[in-house]
Amino acid sequence: MSAFSDALSVSSSGLRAQADRLRVVSENIANVDTPGYRRKTLPFESGEGTSGVQTVQAGETRLDRSDLERIWDPQHPLADPSGFYEGTNVDLIVELADAREAQRSYEANLKMFEQTRQMSSNLMDLLRRG
Fold this sequence. Notes:
By secondary structure, this protein is α+β, with helices and mostly antiparallel strands. It has helices spanning 2-30, 92-129; strands spanning 40-41, 44-48, 54-58, 62-63, 70-72, 84-86.
């Protein structure tokens, strides 16, 4: 039964990591028009489960240090004397692609979790009969 619990541990760590990634991506999308907002990134790190199996976990949230978009709007309250203000460095297309990738990875981990649970249940049924 250890193999089943290892598989459940791996898939559940993937579920947690992708859920955290979706949270960060949704924050970026929500702030796509917020002046001065820097895109957040979330690296994944290798972890170790209870029985020594390799798992994945979300690392520390980082800020994207690429240049902020300079927007010309002399009427904007944040505009400098030349009429520009700093926008954001969030690219909506990149964020939507990241969200789709995280969603599909989440679904794959969920499917693995469900299949492992089903196999475990089937094994228990077979052992009860024998």
